[in-house]
């Protein structure tokens, strides 16, 4: 008995492992089991302790049962996103004490139960977004997840956050909440989390924004808010809160502002003394710049040091004011980015008050030389060290250089991707300039306009044919994508450390070109070093790919499928219904060769000897010799009043039966008539029908069929029903 019991256990385990391998071929000896996008309706059997990563995403799984994951005790990552999961047994995850990542996003969970996570002591990353729950319950579902590092939750139906929902979580590196329809937030709900490095919340209800900010003052380092329509908030954001605050960075994405909300927000955010960085990305400002500058000035200095504005849309941009009166608010600003926002100038008076600004980025705007003279006037930007004016509308390199020469501390200038076209022989630059980017500026040559003080110079993508400048302190030179036929001389640039000269027209090197200092490091691509070898390898690889495609095509009859598709397309262009005079048969019979004895000796005799007799089309007897078989199938179906399918286990294993079913589907079922007659010669299990017979599954679910009975009396009724169906 013991031997028998052991044998039964081993046989069961072997059977489960075979079932797992059949459902997920990648789940062999590997620790990674990838079962994504294979149409699974349930978690497969046979999961063992050797699996550490299980990917079941993008399937049709509805339920997670207690025993499904019982043996997978060493799982580190479980991916179940994008299924149809609506129920999870309470102890489904009980054995997963080592699990670190659980993704249940984009399913159909109507509630979140704390029991699910009760034994997930090692869990660090939990994704619950995109389900259908409206809240997190009355208590915290996460109370046992002391090691949780990132949490993503919420959905379009998520509407309530209650006190206690986040009890048990002390630290999160990232918290992401989809609260696009959040309508109720109980004050203090997020206070239980002591520290959050980065929180992202999608929030359309602006009235909840201030309540959440008050709860996060002492815990969040970086708060990112998306989709918000900022309200005119009257109450203080720091009321009854004690210093010090933790929040240092606030980002708005795809937000909507007005002049009134901007004015009030500037005043209120000053109260958060820890706030050092503000961002606005892809936002909309409805207004003309009529900000309440007096109220803003009375509220005192701002503590913000960095402002980044990317792709802001000002709906009445042509009416926008010059922000006169805001001068007192920008004295302490150190870094400013306004990119991709159609900026064409900064008033001189305003520019002179950026007394502490070290970094200014105006890339991808509309700055032209005429307005640049106003933007960089005498006394403006007195502390500026780095300036980015790339991707603007600058046309004159000489005027651009003259404007920047007014910046006494500038050492890094990027004016790439402007269309200068010409370069003068002499230019006036800041005496402190060390880094200059002139790439993609259409300059045809380099002249002594380039300042000799440079340590880094980038003139890539300019179609330069030579480079012979005297730059005694230059350390890095970038000449990529030009037309150079010779290396630049070593003598004029004695301190050069790095040289990039890719994608030029260098064919040979002379000995003299290498008589400078020893080369420390050269970074060349494989193509540049071994072009002929790489080309040969590519040719061999292409040949092997073609050979592989030919082999696969031969094995899987690709040529036949192409010809079959062409025949079908030709057939689709014919009239949908054959004329009555073209109908030659009462029925076209599709059957497996293994069922030919019943078809030819029983059914054909019964129908063709009836009174009146029926005319049947059989491939053995009626197909035209020498004609391509696909054309025979199509023509026979078109010349038949009905299509009769003799279904059996042999039928669903036959490729030819599938083709006949496909063509009859194209010509008959698409017309929504009753031209198909199904005969079930023997019971067929639904699981036994291969997936490639998807049309047969559909037909059997939507059409009634005749089942061949065992008794003679029932057989007589069968024949009568079949004859009636053929006559209809």
TrEMBL record:
Keyword DNA-binding: no
Cellular component, GO annotation: plasma membrane; receptor complex
Disulfide-bond pairs as recorded: 27-33, 348-377, 427-449
Annotated TIR domain residues: 583-726
InterPro entries registered for this protein in UniProt: Leu-rich_rpt, Leu-rich_rpt_typical-subtyp, LRR_dom_sf, TIR_dom, Toll-like_receptor, Toll_tir_struct_dom_sf
Family recorded in the similarity comment: Belongs to the Toll-like receptor family.
Protein name stated in the entry: TLR21 protein
Native organism: Rhagologus leucostigma
Taxonomic classification: Eukaryota, Metazoa, Chordata, Craniata, Vertebrata
């Amino acid at each position: 008995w013991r031997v028998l019991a052991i044998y039964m256990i081993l046989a069961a385990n072997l059977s489960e492992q075979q079932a797992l391998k059949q459902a997920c071929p990648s789940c062999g000896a590997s620790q990674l089991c990838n079962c994504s996008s294979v149409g699974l309706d349930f978690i497969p059997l046979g999961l063992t302790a050797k699996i550490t990563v299980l990917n079941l995403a993008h399937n049709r799984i509805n339920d997670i049962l207690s025993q499904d994951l019982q043996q997978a005790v060493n799982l580190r990552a479980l991916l179940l996103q994008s299924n149809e999961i609506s129920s999870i047994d309470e102890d489904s995850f009980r054995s997963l004490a080592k699990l670190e990542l659980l993704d249940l996003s984009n399913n159909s969970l109507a509630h979140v139960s704390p029991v699910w996570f009760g034994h997930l002591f090692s869990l660090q990353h939990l994704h619950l977004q995109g389900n259908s729950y409206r809240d997190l319950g009355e208590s915290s579902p996460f109370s046992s997840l002391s090691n949780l590092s990132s949490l993503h939750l919420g959905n379009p139906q998520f509407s309530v956050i209650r006190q206690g929902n986040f009890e048990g979580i002390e630290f999160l590196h990232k918290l992401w909440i989809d609260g696009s329809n959040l309508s109720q937030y109980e004050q203090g709900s997020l206070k239980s989390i002591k520290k959050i490095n980065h929180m992202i919340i999608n929030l359309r209800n602006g009235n909840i924004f201030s309540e959440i900010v008050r709860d996060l003052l002492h815990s969040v380092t970086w708060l990112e808010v998306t989709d918000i329509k900022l309200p005119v908030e009257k109450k203080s954001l720091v009321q009854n809160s004690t210093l010090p605050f933790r929040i240092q960075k606030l980002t708005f994405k795809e937000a909507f502002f007005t002049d009134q909300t901007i004015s009030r927000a500037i005043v209120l955010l000053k109260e958060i003394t820890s706030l050092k960085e503000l961002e606005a990305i892809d936002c909309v400002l409805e207004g003309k710049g009529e900000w309440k500058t007096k109220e803003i000035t009375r509220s005192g200095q701002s503590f913000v040091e960095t402002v980044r504005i990317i792709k802001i849309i000002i709906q009445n941009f042509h009416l926008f004011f010059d922000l006169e009166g805001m001068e007192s608010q920008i004295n302490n600003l150190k870094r400013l980015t306004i990119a991709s926002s159609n900026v064409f100038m900064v008033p001189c008076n305003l520019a002179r008050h950026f007394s502490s600004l070290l970094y200014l980025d105006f890339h991808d705007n509309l700055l032209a030389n005429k307005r640049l003279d106003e933007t960089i006037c005498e006394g403006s930007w007195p502390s500026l060290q780095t300036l980015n004016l790339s991707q603007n509308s600058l046309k004159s390199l000489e005027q651009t250089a003259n404007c920047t020469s007014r910046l006494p501390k500038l050492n890094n200038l990027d004016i790439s991707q402007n269309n200068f076209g010409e370069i003068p022989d002499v230019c006036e630059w800041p005496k402190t300039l060390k880094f200059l980017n002139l790439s993609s500026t259409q300059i045809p040559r380099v002249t002594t306009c380039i300042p000799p003080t440079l340590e880094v110079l980038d003139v890539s993508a300019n179609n330069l044919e030579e480079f012979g400048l005297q730059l005694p302190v230059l350390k890095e030179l970038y000449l990529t994508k030009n037309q150079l036929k010779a290396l630049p001389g070593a003598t004029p640039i004695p301190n050069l450390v790095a040289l990039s000269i890719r994608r030029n027209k260098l064919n040979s090197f002379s000995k003299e070109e290498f008589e400078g200092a020893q080369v420390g490091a050269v970074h060349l691509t494989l193509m540049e070093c071994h072009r002929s070898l790489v080309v040969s390898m590519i040719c061999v690889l292409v040949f092997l790919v073609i050979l592989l495609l030919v082999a696969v095509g031969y094995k899987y009859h690709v040529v036949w499928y192409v010809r079959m598709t062409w025949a079908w397309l030709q057939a689709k262009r014919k009239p949908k219904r054959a004329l009555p005079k073209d109908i030659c048969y009462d029925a076209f019979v599709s059957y497996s060769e293994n069922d030919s004895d019943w078809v030819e000796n029983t059914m054909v005799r019964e129908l063709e000897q009836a009174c009146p007799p029926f005319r049947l089309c059989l491939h053995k007897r009626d197909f035209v010799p020498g004609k391509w078989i696909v054309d025979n199938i199509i023509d026979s179906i078109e010349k038949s009043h009905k299509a009769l399918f003799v279904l059996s286990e042999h039928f669903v294993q036959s490729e030819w039966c599938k083709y006949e079913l496909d063509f009859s589907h194209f010509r008959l079922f698409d017309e929504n008539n009753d031209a198909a007659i199904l005969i079930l010669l023997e019971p067929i299990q639904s699981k036994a029908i291969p997936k490639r017979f998807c049309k047969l599954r559909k037909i059997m679910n939507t059409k009634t069929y005749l089942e061949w009975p065992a008794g003679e009396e029932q057989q007589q009724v069968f024949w009568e029903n079949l004859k009636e169906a053929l006559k209809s």
